[in-house]
């Protein structure tokens, strides 16, 4: 008699049945889909001034989706089934019980992945959020983060005696990571002490991995420590959760539960200590203040060797005006630029970036006055900003072209066409080098 086929078909049917039952459960739909959509809409309201909208917050939103599905959805389903005696009966089946548990985890992975796809699609459809720069790396990071958080969910299911206890234990994980763990509130707006505390929580590393795949040019290249931290925390929780897993509701956790919890929390502590030891707990500055942290050494490392000439097709720059432009249209443009609100922000670095964008837009749209506009921008930069602030702001644009906010449409300045933002950023970096070289005396004007 062939028992292999039933042994294989049983876990597969259990996997499909788990998916089917999930979509029949209102509670599962709320945690898995309604809560992530709520956070998506909330983030869209809070970060409505960012460009492109929600692109820099997708790591947080995906982490919230995973956290809700793994640390609420999974243990709620497992404990509810245990209370109904489902898992006690599973032990009587010919299929190994552990294989059924793996099937449940796999089904939960599919459920969370569908929620993430829904969130990405809604962000794209409602807010025009770009898709991830590295789709495959984002998918790989998503699977890694989900596997780690499923380990935490398995431990919650092992410790909870009933479904209300799942809610309580889940909130002990969810709320700290949302409030001070870098998941719900961006790290850069948290105080320094909260950022250090976040280094002991997996949420910070989950957001880092996911956001790198979504928006960073290097992708996951710099995410080694975050991946290791998630692996350690997830593995410790999974081992403890598996050893403490209860098939019968009449079996209560004993002294071994303390050992399991100590193992899981010890992993969090070890990760935080390692992060502090290796310098990964340095405070994250707000994006608007990054230009202030540019050092003289970073400025000195900027090269001016490969810049296009001032009379070439790309980034032309007129000669100094020596007091007057000789062009009435440029004089009118200079006056509008002097009153232009985006160039008069409280943040000097962001104001400089906006002004340099104007030169880039004129160049990209082939405005007949492009060389003169670039000169007007440079003259106003020198006249309006402290030399030290101007050097750091221009170096920030060169070294970090993807940081900060840019403008790509300035009809109020008499430039009607609208180039792509990515082109404005790259062209701004070239103009910033030309300007910085002149400010430092590296380029003769």
Which structural traits does this protein have?
elongated; 17 helices; mainly alpha; 445 residues; single chain; 2 domains
Task: Please provide a written account of the structure.
This protein is an all-alpha fold. The chain folds into 2 domains: 10-284; 290-439, no CATH class. It has 17 helices and no strands. Helix 2 (26-46) runs antiparallel to helix 3 and helix 3 packs antiparallel against helix 7. The protein is elongated. The N and C termini lie far apart (90 Å).
Write a short abstract of this structure:
The chain has helices at 4-22, 26-46, 58-83, 86-90, 97-127, 135-159, 163-179, 192-198, 202-215, 224-244, 255-277, 296-300, 328-339, 348-364, 370-384, 387-399, 421-439. The protein has 17 helices and no strands.
Average pLDDT across residues?
A: 88
Rg from C-alpha positions?
27 Å
Cα end-to-end separation: 90 Å
Strand fraction equals under 5%
- What share of residues is helical? 55-70%
User: Any low-confidence stretches, pLDDT <50, length ≥5?
Assistant: none
The largest sheet, given as strand count, sense and whether it forms a barrel, is: none
Number of domains: 2
- Please write the string of helix (H) and strand (E) elements: HHHHHHHHHHHHHHHHH
How many distinct beta strands? 0
Helix tally equals 17
The chain-level structural class is mainly alpha
Tell me the quaternary state: single chain
């Amino acid at each position: 008699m062939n028992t292999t086929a039933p042994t294989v078909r049983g876990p597969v049917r259990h996997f499909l049945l788990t998916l089917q039952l999930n979509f029949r459960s209102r509670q599962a739909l709320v945690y898995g889909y309604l809560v992530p959509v709520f956070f998506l809409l909330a983030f869209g309201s809070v970060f409505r001034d960012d460009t492109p909208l929600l692109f820099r917050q997708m790591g947080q939103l995906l982490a919230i989706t995973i956290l809700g599905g793994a640390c609420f959805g999974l243990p709620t389903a497992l404990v509810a089934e245990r209370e109904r005696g489902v898992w006690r009966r599973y032990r009587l089946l010919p299929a190994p019980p552990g294989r059924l548990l793996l099937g449940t985890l796999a089904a939960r992975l599919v459920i969370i992945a569908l929620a993430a796809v829904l969130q990405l699609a809604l962000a794209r459809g409602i807010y025009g959020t770009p898709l991830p720069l590295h789709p495959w790396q984002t998918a790989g990071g998503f699977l890694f983060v989900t596997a780690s958080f499923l380990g935490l969910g398995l431990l919650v299911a092992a410790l909870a005696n009933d479904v209300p206890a799942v809610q309580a234990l889940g909130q002990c994980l969810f709320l700290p990571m949302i409030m001070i763990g870098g998941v719900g509130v961006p790290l850069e707006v948290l105080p320094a002490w909260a950022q250090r505390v976040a280094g002991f929580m997996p949420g910070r590393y989950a957001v880092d991995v996911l956001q790198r795949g979504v928006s960073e040019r290097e992708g996951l290249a710099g995410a080694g420590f975050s991946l290791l931290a998630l692996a350690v925390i997830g593995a410790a929780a999974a081992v403890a959760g598996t050893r403490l897993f209860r098939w019968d509701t009449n079996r209560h956790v004993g002294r071994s539960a303390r050992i399991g919890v100590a193992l899981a929390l010890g992993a969090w502590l070890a990760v935080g200590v390692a992060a502090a030891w290796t310098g990964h707990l340095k405070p994250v500055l707000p994006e608007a203040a990054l230009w202030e942290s540019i050092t003289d050494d970073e400025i000195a490392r900027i090269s001016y060797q490969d810049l296009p000439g001032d009379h070439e097709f790309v980034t032309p720059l007129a000669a100094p005006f020596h007091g007057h432009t000789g062009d009435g249209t440029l004089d009118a443009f200079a006056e509008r630029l002097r009153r232009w609100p985006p160039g008069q922000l409280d943040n000097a670095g962001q104001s400089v970036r906006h002004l340099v964008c104007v030169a880039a837009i004129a160049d990209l749209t082939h405005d007949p006055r492009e060389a003169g506009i670039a000169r007007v921008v440079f003259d106003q930069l020198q006249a309006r900003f402290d030399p030290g602030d101007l050097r750091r702001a221009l170096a920030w644009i060169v070294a970090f072209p993807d940081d900060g906010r840019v403008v790509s449409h300035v009809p109020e300045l008499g430039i009607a066409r609208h180039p792509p933002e990515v082109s404005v950023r790259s062209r701004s970096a070239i103009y910033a080098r030309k300007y910085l070289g002149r400010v430092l005396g590296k380029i003769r004007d």
